[in-house]
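hey so i finally got around to running both of the ones u sent me last week. sorry it took forever, my laptop kept dying halfway thru and i had to restart like 3 times lol. anyway pasting them below in the order u listed, first the sequence line then the structure token line for each. didnt double check formatting much so if smth looks off just lmk and ill redo it

first one:
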Amino acid sequence: MSSPESRMAPRLVADSESEMTEIILPNDANLLGNLLGGRLMHFIDLTGAMAAFRHSRTYVVTAAMDHIDFIQPVKVGDLLILKSRVNRAFNTSMEVGVKVWVEHPQTAVLLHVASAYLVFVAVDQNGRRVRVPEIQPVTADEQRRYEGALRRREYREAESARRRQAKQAFAAQKEMETSAAKQG
């Protein structure tokens, strides 16, 4: 991909910006002629991965899509415009924000239809995690997103710990029930 030295130089948010445009066809839609939510999530994942790849300059894998808002439907024939950029880089992971707009071809009206936050992990060709360069926010908006990404990471970590504890408590309860059933 690129040398480790050049990969670790801090990068600007703007260097990660990526954009993808798709025309929505019938095979992308449900029976009402609306874009399928799963298909939209696929487009979001691809666009987010492009931003993460541009920042890390190595392979990336999706670790989480921890928030997505579907604001309004997208119809067959609409143009879907997706824009992504890295909000913050951690050790081996990056949070990427993706915003999605629809452009109505006849009117050229743009409407915001979805937003999502994703986490990507940088890996080498063997799937082992690799460090990513720092990101340098320049504008006030980039700084706001940078700070928000840390808050969202802390929330994700707390939620992950809560789920682990709940799983352990459930397993302990099942073990107690199994032991009680064997004794009784």
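and the second one:
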Amino acid sequence: MTSTQASANADPITLEIIQSSLQAISDEMFAAFRKTAMSAIIYEVLDMGTAITDGNGNLASSGAGIPAFVGVLDKAVQRILELHKPEEIQAGDIYVTNDPYYGGVTHLNDVVLVMPVFAEERLVAWTANIAHWNDIGGRQALREGSANPLGPGDHEGQQPPARLPAG
């Protein structure tokens, strides 16, 4: 049964409770992110966003934040799913990307962190956040301005989705 079929079979009250719960979780993710941030661009400017996707990377809910940021989080999850076999994805893993070509971010300083959510050993959702990091290293840090064009970008800070395994 697809999620669309499941939605068609569920009563409206149950759907509203589920959607409100997902929204509350996304908002709590945003609040925790802001409270624990060490960068003023995150905790003061709020240059960030949070979201929850389903297991396939389709946006299910989003917290506060920059709409353009929230709107790319599903693309980052979908790219991770393209690059990693389902059996490679484990509970507790975290994936990091700032690839503007395949990860949905607008430039290299926008970094996405994504974590899979499992229920009964089945991947059911992903939690994701995105924020602007002031310095990601590479030659970009040696030039003026964070949006300075330097070529294809492969000499810059980390880009493709990297897996940080649990444990």
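quick thing i noticed on the 2nd:
Residues 12-36 form the longest helix (25 residues).
anyway thats it, ttyl
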